[in-house]
Amino acid sequence: MTTVIDGSTGITPAVPVSTANGGTGLSTPGNANNVLTSDGTNWISAPRPLFNSLITPAVLSAGVQNLAHSLGRKPNFIIVSLIVVVSVNGWAINDEIYWHTSVSGVAENLLFVGCDSTNILVAFASTTLAIPIKTTGQPIAVAASNFKVRVTFL
What we know:
Blueprint: E1 3-6, E2 10-13, E3 35-38, E4 43-46, E5 52-55, E6 63-68, E7 78-84, E8 96-98, E9 110-115, E10 119-124, E11 128-132, E12 139-143, E13 147-153
Antiparallel strand pairs: 1-2, 3-4, 5-13, 6-10, 7-8, 7-13, 9-10, 11-12
């Protein structure tokens, strides 16, 4: 390792400081807005993580949908939304409804969202969903086949 004389502090190691000596091994700070992250072996300057998204072909009938993700760990954050594929209750095709877990008097909705290090599990109780009318918020039972499910996670 080479050293440089610094008038204020004395002798300091030149960059990069190796990981063996407690450094990152990086010789430059990386691109603006990058973050320091580990690839499991080395420290790297990388773009901020983006949200991942999985879209199911359709809401399946009652039961659990296992959606494989490639994080290698449990997601830290999950949002489930419905994407309209058939106009219903004032919602147009490709509108997205951020939907909360509930059971209403009209129809049963999503039961749970769970995850592990390889899958996100989305369970539906029924083939009918209580979707609010876009202009009033009043839930009306509609066929689950009118929607795809988007699972967004980080």
